[in-house]
Amino acid sequence: EIVLTQSPATLSLSPGERATLSCRASQSVRTYLAWYQQKPGQAPRLLIYDASNRATGIPARFSGSGSGTDFTLTISSLEPEDFAVYYCQQRSNWPLTFGPGTKVDIK
Amino acid sequence: EVQLVESGGGLVQPGGSLRLSCAASGFTFSSYWMHWVRQAPGKGLVWVSRINSDGSTTNYADSVKGRFTISRDNAKNTLYLQMNSLRAEDTAVYYCARDIIADYWGQGTLVTVSS
Fold first, then answer.
1. Which of A72, A79, B13, B114 is deepest in the core (most CB within 10 A)?
2. Residues B56-63: contacts with CB under 8 Å, at least 24 apart
3. pLDDT tier at B101, thresholds 50, 70, 90
4. Residue A40 Cα, gap to closest chain B Cα (Å)
5. Cα distance from B94 to chain A (closest Cα, Å)?
6. What is the mean pLDDT of residues B26-30?
């Protein structure tokens, strides 16, 4: 099973600041890496798929990069609605796995 | 508009059974892989099972293999998860999700396994 590690566990930032979230895989997932946003009481929302492709309706301030084992989600300028938990997820191998999440909270 | 609506959750005793449903609308259901993902209270996301578009291929997490069965009825645009021999650790919100990239998710249905 591919293990995904996310860092940091919590990121405390102010609106308007840049957020950089990291996801590392225990073995190569090529570019089969996605990022999801989840707010309390809501279902996850797909942000980025295949490492760098924005999902439908996702604002341009969200971007993804990386390949192999190291990936980054960048939020260029945090909006109030961006404070949430972010999960990375790989679909390279079954079982599909998620990282433990990074919580982005308001400083 | 793509919609996924789960139902069938509830309180069940350990060892019991439950069948979850996910009603799909707004897209050609028979063309897409579908998934079940769960989230225990206060915890992260865990993939449970997936099924291909015609139902001929299924995969399960080791934790549910032999106890859960995923299926679909493309004529009814509905995905199912039959859960047998339920354990306390199966307590979670269960989400259905569409496509190999899980681009749309339902709102989830809560399953509580407790005596």
1. A72
2. B59/A94, B59/A95, B61/A95, B62/A95, B63/B89
3. confident
4. 10
5. 10
6. 97
